[in-house]
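ARCHIVE CARD
Drawer: 12
Card no.: 0347
Subject: one protein chain, sequence and derived structure
Cross-reference: see card 0346
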Amino acid sequence: MKIRMSLSVAVATLALLVASACGGGECPECNCPVCPQPAAQPAPQPVAQTGPCTEEWVHMPVLINFPTGGAELDAQNRAILQEVVRTAQSRQDIRRVRVEGHTDTCGDENNNMSLSQQRSEAVALALVEMGVPREMMETVGYGSTQPRANEACETRQARSATELSRQTNRRVEFSILVCREGTAGGM
């Protein structure tokens, strides 16, 4: 059974996450979805950089999921990427994007490392086709070394019971390098 979030909900969620890039979610330290940052710092505004800043990597909880053994993007994932690009284009603080490929834990780890790299490169290529300069991106494949969910691959019954976990682990995520204006420490 394939479980998917509706496209409109996914796009709306992505737009909010990219627009905030850590400024309004659930983290006890900064009230963002996943990254630690001082609570008092306001969400970055899309303004031109005029002075020194501090660059920091921010994890974006945007997931592009893949079928078992696959690295092809479907129409839903392309739509999500288009919305991410549209939202990111309004921001002046983004310096780099790291496209991070992952796999489930089933199969040979050497194959998983290769597949995760293929996934990150497929997403990066799609982003280039949508207007993101290739020189702003880096790709990395983590294989099955950073699972988001527990899964078992040994038996058919275990596979059925953990299919949702496996789907969650077959993904590409993003980290962005942002420039936080006015936070430079002696630059």
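Annotation on reverse: Residues 109-129 form the longest helix (21 residues). Confidence is low (pLDDT under 50) at residues 1-49.
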